[in-house]
């Protein structure tokens, strides 16, 4: 059986529907509620919900909540919110592995009665030592030959809370010499005295992922149970449970390659650490690859879905460049983001020959290609702000912006010529003077002379102030997660830059918080949904206009 490297799951589903193996398909997205979802989860969400959508099936949202020690209601809520935000809807199909705890328990007793499970008294360390290695078979536990009655009695005592955490486990009796380590008497149940976010204090023994997952799939009638490649070696165990237990249906497990993205980390342990050690500001920090972080930063759900389509689904592990994700949001926003003028690092410019107190209105298109986005008016006045780095007193070769003696075009307005500067005691330029050409209204010279540079500006009189947050990669190494060295060594100390006193065109005061705008020449921005308030605007840069990261 050869498996094509891309779209192989769609092919499988198509074939299963064509052959009549399934009348309709059922998939599931099964997060463990032990953290926030990240862009890797988006790949799985788009895949599972996308298959159901495209082939007229359904996709369940199932919380794989088998370890109450790490799971919380906060995570359950954020996961639901993230899936909805990405644009998917599970409808009535919300499930929890914990919904099946009673049935799973009954199946555990069933295995004991079939002499296919036993209560283990070895410690975790002893079990590990007995387990063997890839090249050496394991050794059978002395407790493996316990009688059915003794196993049943002990397992019931485990359930009734007689033993402390870790005192005993229930194991399947399969094959300690199997070349597949997953089949060497895997643990089925462990004791955890902790309240569960969904079922409270009803249980103190909890099934392992492997014992819960396939059976949950069977109970829900999942046809295609899609997981990442690490679970490939668990597939024989998944099938052993389905073969051995009286389950109501026969799901099949398929594996695909997980998403690995450069310059970030996606393991939940590491994300937890970054949040709890306050290296970032919460799970929705715009520098994190969490869906809540990407949303807050300004990524659109469409751009993330495009990304998931573009990277494809295959069976070989690969790395995706962060720039691919950024390009997806850039393309999306280029098409729909209205344009605006904003000066991030302001330098005052005085147009000396422009009448004091005079104000002129210029019409500007909100989008250069899309007239449906309409026009807006921009006020011009004698004092304006430009970017500090659009002025140079001693320009390098090829600098076509504002320099003493030279002409430059102010976007939408006039051609101006710089006539001089005012400096502070330290010699820094604090004010630039210039004169405008009244015959260049709109930006073209009446005599047709060419002006090489065009810069953006805002009227000092009308500008609104804002804080603007610029983000860079959270890590300065493409693969901080590689393991030999603590990933925190690779944190980029300049991953956030906060600019205050930025000057924005006043139309931005009324910006819809969900709208992303292009600040001309600066990138795409949105209001920060947590920190921005009226009269104290805070903008996040979603992405720069051009790829400045790769190479
Ligand atoms: P971690 O190992 O960091 O705890 P996880 O994979 O255990 O993450 P789950 O909540 O169990 O996290 O994941 C839910 C689903 O999302 C699983 O089906 C898993 O295969 C999938 N998933 C998780 N990470 C990725 C990834 N990087 N790429 C693709 N799918 C992923
Ligand atoms: Mg995990
Ligand atoms: Mg998991």
UniProtKB/TrEMBL annotation:
It comes from the Bacteria. Residues 337-437 form the Glutamyl/glutaminyl-tRNA synthetase class Ib anti-codon binding domain. L-glutamine binds at residues 64, 209. Keywords: Aminoacyl-tRNA synthetase, ATP-binding, Cytoplasm, Ligase, Nucleotide-binding, Protein biosynthesis. PROSITE patterns: AA_TRNA_LIGASE_I (PS00178). GO terms for molecular function: ligase activity. Residues 25-334 form the Glutamyl/glutaminyl-tRNA synthetase class Ib catalytic domain. A motif ('KMSKS' region) lies at residues 265-269. Its EC number is 6.1.1.18. It catalyses: tRNA(Gln) + L-glutamine + ATP = L-glutaminyl-tRNA(Gln) + AMP + diphosphate. A motif ('HIGH' region) lies at residues 31-41. It holds the Pfam family tRNA-synt_1c. Residues 454-528 form the tRNA synthetases class I (E and Q) anti-codon binding domain. It is found in: Cytoplasm. ATP binds at residues 32-34, 38-44, 228, 258-259, 266-268. Monomer. Belongs to the class-I aminoacyl-tRNA synthetase family. This is Glutamine--tRNA ligase. The lineage of its organism: Bacteria, Pseudomonadati, Thermodesulfobacteriota, Desulfuromonadia, Geobacterales.
């Amino acid at each position: 059986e050869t498996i094509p490297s891309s779209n192989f799951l769609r092919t499988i589903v198509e074939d299963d529907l064509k052959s009549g193996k399934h009348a309709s398909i059922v998939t599931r997205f099964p997060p463990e509620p032990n953290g926030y979802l990240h862009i890797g989860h988006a790949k799985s969400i788009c895949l599972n919900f996308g298959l159901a959508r495209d082939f007229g099936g359904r996709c369940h949202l199932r919380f794989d909540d088998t370890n109450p020690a790490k799971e919380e209601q906060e995570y359950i809520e954020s996961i639901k919110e993230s899936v909805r935000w990405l644009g998917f809807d599970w409808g009535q199909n919300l499930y929890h592995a914990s919904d099946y705890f009673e049935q799973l328990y009954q199946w555990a007793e069933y295995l004991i009665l079939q002499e296919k499970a036993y209560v283990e008294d070895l410690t975790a360390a002893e079990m590990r030592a007995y387990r063997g290695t890839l090249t050496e078979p394991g050794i059978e536990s002395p407790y493996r030959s316990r009688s059915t009655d003794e196993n049943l009695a002990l397992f019931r005592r485990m359930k009734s809370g007689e033993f402390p955490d870790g005192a005993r486990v229930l194991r399947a009796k399969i094959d300690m010499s199997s070349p597949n380590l997953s089949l060497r008497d895997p643990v089925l149940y462990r004791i955890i005295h902790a309240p569960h976010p969904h079922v409270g204090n009803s249980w103190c023994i909890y099934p392992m992922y492997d014992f819960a997952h396939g059976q949950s799939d069977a109970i829900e009638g999942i046809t295609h149970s899609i997981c990442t490649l690490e679970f490939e070696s668990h597939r024989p165990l998944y099938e052993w449970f389905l073969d051995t237990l009286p389950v109501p249906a026969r799901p099949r497990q398929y594996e695909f390659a997980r998403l690995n993205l450069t310059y970030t980390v996606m393991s939940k342990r590491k994300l937890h650490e970054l949040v709890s050690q306050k290296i970032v500001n919460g799970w929705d920090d715009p520098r994190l690859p969490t869906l809540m972080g990407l949303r807050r930063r300004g990524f659109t759900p469409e751009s993330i879905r495009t990304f998931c389509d573009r990277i494809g689904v295959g069976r070989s592990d690969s790395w995706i460049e962060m720039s691919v994700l950024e390009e997806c949001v850039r393309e999306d926003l280029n098409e729909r983001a209205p344009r605006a003028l904003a000066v991030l690092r302001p330098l005052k410019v005085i147009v000396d020959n422009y009448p004091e107190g005079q104000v002129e209105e210029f019409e500007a298109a909100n989008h250069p290609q899309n007239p449906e986005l309409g026009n807006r008016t921009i006020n011009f006045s004698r004092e304006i702000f430009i970017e500090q780095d659009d002025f140079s007193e001693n320009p390098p070769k090829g600098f076509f912006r504002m320099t003493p003696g030279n002409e430059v075009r102010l976007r939408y307005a006039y051609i101006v010529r710089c006539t001089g500067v005012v400096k502070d005691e330290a010699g820094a330029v604090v004010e630039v003077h210039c004169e405008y050409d009244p015959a260049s209204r709109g930006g073209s010279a009446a005599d047709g002379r060419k002006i090489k540079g065009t810069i953006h500006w805002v009227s000092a009189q009308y500008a609104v102030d804002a804080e603007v947050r610029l983000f860079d990669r959270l890590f300065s190494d493409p693969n901080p997660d590689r393991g030999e060295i603590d990933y925190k060594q690779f944190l980029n100390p300049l991953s956030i830059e906060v600019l205050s006193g930025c000057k924005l065109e006043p139309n931005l005061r009324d910006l819809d918080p969900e709208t992303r705008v292009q600040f001309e020449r600066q990138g795409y921005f949105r209001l920060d949904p947590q920190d921005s308030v009226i009269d104290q605007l805070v903008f996040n840069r979603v992405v720069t206009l051009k790829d400045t990261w790769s190479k």
